[in-house]
Specification:
By secondary structure, this protein is of the alpha/beta class. The chain is built from two helices and eight strands, in the order αββββββαββ. It has helices at about 1-10, 70-85, and strands at about 15-20, 25, 30-35, 35-40, 50-55, 60-65, 85-90, 95-100. β6, α2 (about 70-85) and β7 form a beta-alpha-beta unit. The longest helix is centred in the last third of the chain and has 15 residues, at about 70-85. The protein starts with a helix and ends in an 8-residue tail after the last strand.
Length: about 110
């Protein structure tokens, strides 16, 4: 899945995608978070630093594991919202479900 997403984003010049280990620094959590996938639109490329993303990414995706359930569903949702991250997806293979969060006032194409 990551390969297809990466190819599509690159082919259309939409921005950059990073996988696990990409640090996203947030104002309210200066130590940051490391989502499983991070997407930054081309117009926000100035947020990409050599070792981290400064400020809100345009999309973060968390893939739930047994040890991350509380963190992904409870801790990160309000953190990402407060940071102004417009889209947050939770992919949960344990429950076989996906949840898609979008900041209020944002359209589906934002």
């Amino acid at each position: 899945m990551l390969t297809f997403l990466l190819l599509y984003i690159q082919q259309h010049g939409l921005g950059r995608i990073f996988h696990a280990g990409a640090l996203v620094k947030l104002a309210q959590k200066p130590s940051g978070r490391e989502p499983d996938l991070v997407f930054v639109k081309q117009e926000h490329a100035d947020r990409i630093k050599p070792t981290f993303v400064e400020g809100p990414a345009d999309l973060v995706v968390e893939i739930v594991s047994p040890d991350s359930v509380t963190r992904d569903y409870c801790d990160k949702v309000p953190e990402y919202e407060a940071a102004g991250i417009p889209k947050y997806w939770i992919i949960d293979p344990i429950r076989k479900e996906a949840r898609f969060y979008q900041l209020a006032g944002r359209g589906p194409n934002d």
